[in-house]
Structure formats: structure tokens, C-alpha cells
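Dear support,

I submitted the protein below through the web form. The confirmation email said the job was done, but the results page showed an empty box. After a refresh the structure appeared. I'm attaching both so you can tell me whether what I see now is the final result or a partial one.
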Amino acid sequence: MNMQDEAARSITITRIFDAPPHLLFLAHSKPEHVIKWFGPVGWPLTLCEMDFRVGGSFRFAMTGPDGVQNPPFGGEYLDIVPDARIVYDNGFHLPGAEKMVTTITFEPVEDGKTLLTMHTLFANPAMYATHVGAGFSSGVNSGLNQLEDVVAALKA
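What the results page shows now:
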């Protein structure tokens, strides 16, 4: 795979949080925290199962404003470095569903803040186009807005 191909099917989102890396890692690693922030506003997680370890899996489902739960999605944790990195694959739990791979890094920056970088590599350009068309970036950013509140509560 060349870099141009990867660029045509990936999205990178960055955000600086006013919290140390270990609190952001904690908010990603425990279901009681993830359920409070994951997904866009108005689409809460109504299924949040996590076996947070390398080789472990997760299974999530969101319920829309209409009250209907979407099909479950999830994947496997591929790499976990405490307070630094989480890598997982992710896709819908449907026969033949393709998966994306997401790498999240937590990098300490000045004044006790953390640079969160989320890089998502989709299986192919068509999967990328479908997710972009469905508002992937705005949905992730909406979830990250909620993550700010969760991390602020963890700091308190």
C-alpha cells in the first residue's frame, strides 16, 4: 500500500484536552466512562460491552433520536500502551462487514494538557466515502466534546 492510497481512505482528528494522558486513557478504557461520551450528541450508547485488553473485544450500539437502536458494531483491541496508545479494529456485526482500524494516541503537552490524535484507516475508499458522507468527523468531534466533560469530572 502506498501513502497516497492510505491518505485517500483515512481521517485524522486532533484535539488538545486540559487533562493529563492517564485521565484520557482511563476515559477510553472503562465502560462506565465510555458510555457517557462515545458517539454524537443525541445518539447515546445503549450497548457498551468491553474486554479492554490486547486481543479483547468491544461491542457497542447507539440509539438514535427516534428511539431505535442501530445494529451493533465493534471489534478487537490490537494494541494497548497504558496512557499512550490504543489501537483497535471496528466494524458492524454483520456478515461480510468491512473493518476500519483506529489508532488513538495521548501525547503530553505543556501545562498538564494532552494532545489526543485519532487516526482512522478505512478498509477501502468506498467505506471511507460512506462514513464521510454520514458525518463521521462531526460525529467524532461531538463525542470528543462530551469527552471533555467526562475528563473534567475525572479531574475533580
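Response: this is the final, complete result; the empty box was a page-load delay. The chain is about 30% helix and 35% strand.
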